[in-house]
Write the structure tokens for this entry.
Amino acid sequence: MTHAPAGLGRPRLHLRETGSTSERARALALAGAPHGTVVTAGRQTAGRGRQGRAWSSPPGSLSLSLVLRGHDALLPLRTGLAVADVAGPEARVKWPNDVLVEGGKVAGVLAEAHLERGEPAAATLAALRGGDALAGRRVAWAGGAGTAAGIAEDGGLRVRLDDGGETVLAAGEVHLLDP
């Protein structure tokens, strides 16, 4: 009997509680889990956020990690857009992939992988630009400050610097300086 390749979400491991869905998914990936394997949990007690920050989720929330093989560099951006789409028309994406509703964070995406650069998809970039929560706002990051000026062709955050120059942030964390 021949089986079609698994899509996203199969096989699935659901846990009532776990330390980290990412760690479980990583272990499964290293053991050869196929593309699309998903680990979900109703509560996560020792997850990781950006820059090694602790991330936990209360009972009743959804923590999810997915094993993906061979996807493009814009995947984390696409994921933020997909979550914002589900969150509703008021949702905005805070680059690179936090989802805000009424200014409050309702979801975050942490991609951990070596993703090769591919040709960016115009539709993904247009959607991200249309829901950009940072455009025109003052931002700061570990290396400086400036005004967010939209999304670059490679998915980075364009920032106008105070001295009139411009930079593109490819990764990292930005903070809003204005409320």
Q: What stands out?
A: The chain has a mean pLDDT of 83.
